[in-house]
Structures are given as C-alpha cells and as structure tokens.
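In this supplementary section we document a worked example of the pipeline. Step one takes a protein sequence of length 145 as its only input; no multiple sequence alignment statistics are reported here. Step two produces a three-dimensional model, which step three serialises into structure tokens for compact storage. The input and output of this example are shown verbatim.
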Amino acid sequence: MKIQDKETFDKANVFGLGQENSAFAQYFIGNSYLNPLTKPGESTIALANVTFEPGCRNNWHIHHAKTGGGQILICTAGSGWYQEEGKLAVSLEPGTVIVIPPEVKHWHGAKADSWFSHIAFEVPGTETNNEWLEEVDDEAYSKLQ
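The serialised model returned by step three reads:
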C-alpha cells in the first residue's frame, strides 16, 4: 500500500521511525531510519525496524556467513522493492516476508512514491559479515513500476 504522506505513514508504521540511520548512510541513497527492537546481547537474533523515505534504497550487498546467516525481512508499512542479482524486482507490501540466504547479492528499499518500513532479522551464523557494494543506479531504479 503506497503511502506518500508522512503523517499517514507514521500512523501505519507501528514499530516507529527511530533515529536517522547515520552510521550506514554511506550505503543508502536517500534517508533511512533505524529503530532497534532488541538490545545488544538480549538475544541471538538482532531485530530492527528500518524505515525508508520515498525513493530511498540501500546499495547492493551480500550477507556472508560460514554457516547459518542471511537475513529475513518482514514488511510492515508502505511499499517497497527487493531485488536479487539477475532476477526481477519483487514488490514489497505489508505482510510480505523475504528470506535472504547468505551469499546472495541483493538490495531493498522504498518505492519512488511511498514511504516503506520492514523489520530486519539478522539470522545467526558463524563468521557473519555484510559486504556493501555498488549503488542501485537511478536509471535502473526509475524503470521499476
């Protein structure tokens, strides 16, 4: 469900906007916000609500792991995109669940005309790390409908 109006989106974004995602801003086009839902050390699973302003998306990236690992996205508000390298982009709507295995190059973010939020689960594993890659260029992004 596309939501352009910030006030309307804030009502739908039940897990909250959080703070500007400045620590990872270099890996995003546009502004994103991070609201941690678990505290470090509280669980083996880290949960956070990530909110993207319209047009915001993260760079291509890979979740590496020797064993386990990867990421799960649960879309909660607004409308976004998810794309794996070599595949068509998938529309993200509230209730969509995306399971991202380790070692899969992908990106995700808001549609150009909608705010978007998802809860991100980092799947536990050994020797896990994220490799941030190139931006999703404006030309490719603008072709998504």
